[in-house]
Amino acid sequence: MSDPVVPTTVPRQVTVPAASSSSAIATRNVIEIEDLDFNYGASKALHDITLNIREREVTAFIGPSGCGKSTLLRCLNRMNDLIDIAKVTAGQIRIDGVNIYDPRVDVIELRKRVGMVFQKSNPFPKSIYENITYGLRIQGRKNKAELDEIVERSLRGAALWDEVKDRLHESALGMSGGQQQRLCIARAIAVEPEIILMDEPCSALDPIATAKVEELIHELKKQFTIVIVTHNMQQAARCSDRTAFFYLGRLIEYAETRTIFMNPSNPQTEAYVSGRFG
Ligand code: ADP
Hints:
By secondary structure, the protein is of the alpha/beta class. Helix content is 33%, strand content 24%. The protein has helices at residues 69-75, 107-113, 128-138, 144-157, 161-164, 177-190, 207-220, 233-239, 257-262, 267-273, and strands at residues 29-40, 43-54, 58-62, 86-95, 98-99, 114-117, 195-199, 225-229, 242-247, 250-256. The radius of gyration is 19 Å and the shape is globular.
């Protein structure tokens, strides 16, 4: 890909709702990424990333394919540990002040606190009810009344309860794609995480299902810190408070979403958000 050229006048293609700005609310940094380098074998995928993510905000990672968005997202709950050649080679990620790459950190516990929703919904081939209680049962929670209560709360939280309350014991695989993705969100929130990572959660959904998930993201941020990777700039503009733009494994610009889309400081950001490359 050639470097973007920056013309003087650019048609803006992305509308940013006024409500996406949250500058008036001062929240604390829940995730602090500092001077992070990350390699797949000898190949460096992330270069010197420094970025703070605020509590109960939606932070969007945008940038052209291969720029490192998903890699960075997966660093936040150490999902990259599952790839042999993947390694943080410098820097730190702290969650609530604790370096999550410290050898003393319990990775299972970390992933409970930092849940994840993937690009393609991946419900288990079990009932709707069992999809939500699966993680809880593994934790040894067996009390039926408690599980019933969590199932209802999680499905309500994922804006799915009214649609499925009469078929909780039917297979999750009979749900529509959009419902399956909301079920995966319900499953993620059932274990009461602090942070939810979403890797292109709407890329397999139609516009109506996408709108429902976006509405849901808006609701969820009252309770959770959300980090979303998206290649859809309209989605970043609609859903997020802050946006980080990456290019070739580097963080180019990070600011309030409104600033990134309406008044970016970096010419590469401007070229990308105005649709001239990527
Ligand atoms: P994005 O999410 O922005 O599309 P990725 O984080 O998936 O980018 O990829 C960043 C870079 O890391 C790309 O060059 C990609 O080819 C490489 N990469 C991603 N996953 C792996 C992997 N499992 N093994 C080796 N290289 C990978």
